[in-house]
Amino acid sequence: MNFGLIGLIFVFSESSRAYVQYSLQNNISSCTACHFSQVGGGPKNLNGKLYGAHTFRANPSLAQSYFSADLRVLYYQPEESKTSKSGMGLMNGTVAGHTHLDEDGRIFLMLEHNVLGFASVPYRDTYGLFRLRRTPGWLETIMIGRFRVPFGIVTDEHRTYTRIQTNTEWYTLETGALLSGNPYESVHLDLGVFNGSEFAGQSLNTGQAPQWELLGNVRWLKSPFMLGASGRKGAWSTYAGATYRAFTLLLEHAQAKARNRALARGFVGNAGYGESIMKSHSQGWLAWLEWAYNHRFALIYKFDLLIPDRDYKADNYERHGLGFRWAIGPGVLIHARGEWARATHPSEDEGIGTGRQSAGWALLQFEL
Asked: Global pTM?
């Protein structure tokens, strides 16, 4: 049976992928069209798996809702490949089990484990989800456990500057509760509360109990346009998108205060400079332009700009990238891009941080 064709029938009538551009093209405001999580990303439901077949003939075992896996193999070559980390490696390898626990389908359990790869956190999407109502409304579901946070433009590219400065990379998860709903057909709302934000709830830590953080995210999407805003402790984002025929444009502006600790972990080339901007107020911009040649192949241009300290706007990091995304089989994707970077702070003249270096990379992804 051609499961890829079945997936297309489902998707183009009522669903989309985690990529925001597909939500725009198909006029879907809720991520649960293809994902179990209200946030998007992570393991896919049956519609998402079928859509991921990209019209290829898929193995019948793909059409099930109880088990998922994701394997990503990365090749990375920075400008200074002899002095910086480079080469080929297993970036990510996760397995997940998921199912509804009750006959009515109101209680759902997700268990996902990162069994190999670069990310040091083994436990990924691990939560219980309770459906409060079956019809659209302000509060439809509550998710309790460990999961990705809905903030800005959802992307699984952790090199995106707006994700780095706000500590919302694809591998950054928080532990708490998230209320989600669709009060109107074109509006999606998330309200979250998290505990232990400095430790992400991976384990108990001294003084973690009083650490609480609130998060809000609202998105209006009525194809061909999207507008959204997100806020959490010390960080906020406004984002927008538009699509016309095969072209999609995504834009985001983010600001963050005292959240630059991620920049000191290899992004800037000088440890002293990284320490000096740890508490600064940063600004970041993202522009993403995509041309979908067909359902399997798309060309992508990406622009990133980061000002680590808005009081010193001349010190910034800029990156242009040109590449493609190509589905070569059911659930098999190749992502590749060449990126040209520039850093203006004097300490970066001889630095080897990732923010200064131009690079090329390719990612082979297998999804089940």
From this structure: 0.90
Instruction: Return the H-helix or E-strand segment holding 175.
Output: strand 173-184
Contacts of 93 (CB under 8 A, 6+ apart): 69, 70, 71, 72, 114, 115, 116, 117
Please give the Cα distance from 234 to 282 (Å, whole number).
10
Q: Are strands 317-329 and 247-257 parallel, antiparallel or unpaired?
A: unpaired
DSSP letter assigned to residue 136: -
CA angle 85, 88, 91 (to 5 degrees): 90
The DSSP line for 291-324 is EESSSSEEEEEEEEEEES-TT-TTS-EEEEEEEE
DSSP secondary structure letters along 207-235: T-TT-EEEEEEEEEEETTEEEEEEEETTE
Helix (H, G, I), strand (E, B) or coil at 31: helix
Contacts of 201 by beta carbon, 8 Å cutoff, 6+ apart:
146, 174, 175, 176, 194, 195
CA–CA–CA angle 338, 340, 344 (5° rounding): 160
How far apart CA 127 and CA 106 sit, in angstroms, is 14
In Å, how far are 79, 273, 318 from 340, measured between CA atoms? 9, 22, 8
DSSP conformation class of 23: H
Q: Let me know: does 92 contact 365? Beta carbons within 8 Å.
A: no
CA pair distance 11, 18, nearest whole angstrom = 12
- The CA dihedral of 229, 232, 233, 234, to the nearest 10 degrees, is -30
The token pair at 281 is: 């107020």
Helix-then-strand count for the chain, H and E:
5, 16
> Reduced to 3 states, what is the DSSP secondary structure of residue 185?
coil
pLDDT digits (tens, 9 = 90+) for 293-316: 998 999 999 999 999 999 999 999
Output phi, psi for 192, to 5 deg.
-125, 155
Encode pLDDT of 247-299 as tens digits. Answer: 999 999 999 999 998 888 889 988 899 999 999 999 999 999 999 999 899 99
Structure token pair of residue 76:
């990375």
Distance CA 46, CA 28 (A): 17
List, for residues 18-73, the tens digit of each pLDDT value. 567 767 776 777 777 788 888 888 898 888 888 888 888 888 888 888 999 999 99
